[in-house]
Design a protein that fits this description.
By secondary structure, the chain is mainly beta. Helix content is 0%, strand content 41%.
Length: 64
């Protein structure tokens, strides 16, 4: 999947990146060494074993 980096928040060990995918978005943790900047095109490869889903209304995890 390809998307656009809408926001990048350094967290120390990881960067929290908000990626726009058309009308949707994902928040991902990425290695800061990737040096992603806002408006960069990013290619995502989803590891479903490390994926977390949240309810948009309650913001609670759907998996826990």
């Amino acid at each position: 999947m390809r998307g656009e980096a809408l926001a990048v928040e350094p967290l120390g060990r990881d960067d929290l990146i908000e990626v726009g995918l058309g009308d949707a978005y994902l928040r991902i943790l990425a290695d800061p060494d990737l040096n992603v900047k806002i408006r960069d095109t990013v290619t995502l490869q989803i590891n479903t074993r490390k994926t977390q889903f949240f309810d948009p209304k309650t913001e609670l995890s759907l998996l826990w």
